[in-house]
Amino acid sequence: MSELVRLRTYHPEAVAEAAARRTRRPLLRAGGRLMIIAADHPARGALAVGDRRLAMANRADLLERLCLALSRPGVDGVLATADILDDLLLLGALEDRVVVGSMNRGGLAGAAFELDDRFTGHRPEDLARLRFDAGKLLLRIDYEDPRSLDTLHSTARAIDAMAERRLPVFVEPFICYRADGRLHTDLGAEAVTRSIAIASGLGGTSAYTWLKVPVTQDPDDMARVMETSTLPAVLLGGEIGGDQEGAYEKWRKALQLPTVRGLVVGRSLLYPVDGDVARAVDTAVGLL
């Protein structure tokens, strides 16, 4: 940690230098499957894991967990914001890994403006300049909130900008609603189907668009839901509570569907219930 602080203080250009010399790889290898570790939660103020409200706030601990996860066989890469990716670049942890930059983190968790999800993270030009491999954006839609239209519009333009650079972009769509003053996501089959249909049609081309989708409330609905689009998709891990084995079973079934190409999982693998990051990651990789 002290070396990272020293480099950031006295040699900030080290980030760009590390990005320039990083060994890259194709997004997909021969098996055609992806296993990505997600760590873009902190930049939206979402630091909790289970009942631990600030679990992800310790940066040294988070980086240690990420480096361990990235070292495991079968892990392809990481999804994170600039601060975390800069740290990982300086640590040399991104060699021969897929690097996905998180693009919109403006919809802070619990904020009144949560659905005004502006693009405050990586821009398409940043991802191209740093030689990163893809971007990811969050698309939450509340039919009762006019700010969702702003997010839709900016999402479409971001997809266009990524396609111009031939950079894949993972779009994570949700239909949302407010209840008891809080924002909730609807994981029912109809809502997830609608979100996929909306996300698939954004922008001037869908050639470089991937979907990042949750498993539906009833996992048996996933086969029908995923018929909504021909775009390649990865599964979102999400919060799984204490039922780690139940989550693995849901992912296992959904991974058999034709358009599902892999997993993007964060907190449930980085902070597993039993504390064994390596075992959690290895189990998830085994599902692929």
TL;DR of this structure?
The protein has 288 residues and is of the alpha/beta class.
Name its key features.
alpha/beta; Deoxyribose-phosphate aldolase; Cgl0159_dom; TIM Barrel; 11 helices; 8-stranded parallel beta barrel; globular; 288 residues; 9 strands
Question: Mind explaining what this structure looks like?
Answer:
With 288 residues, this protein is α/β, with parallel strands linked by helices. It has one domain: TIM Barrel. The chain contains 11 helices and 9 strands. The relative contact order is 0.14. Helix content is 36%, strand content 18%. The model has no long low-confidence stretch (mean pLDDT 95). Pfam families: Cgl0159. This is Deoxyribose-phosphate aldolase. InterPro entries: Aldolase_TIM (IPR013785), Cgl0159_dom (IPR054574).
Give the SSE layout:
Blueprint: H1 2-10, H2 14-21, E1 34-38, H3 59-71, E2 77-80, H4 82-91, E3 98-102, H5 124-129, E4 134-141, H6 147-164, E5 169-179, E6 182-185, H7 189-200, E7 209-214, H8 222-225, E8 233-236, H9 244-254, E9 260-265, H10 267-270, H11 277-286
Parallel strand pairs: 1-2, 1-9, 2-3, 3-4, 4-5, 5-7, 7-8, 8-9
Antiparallel strand pairs: 5-6
Helix pairs in contact: 2-4
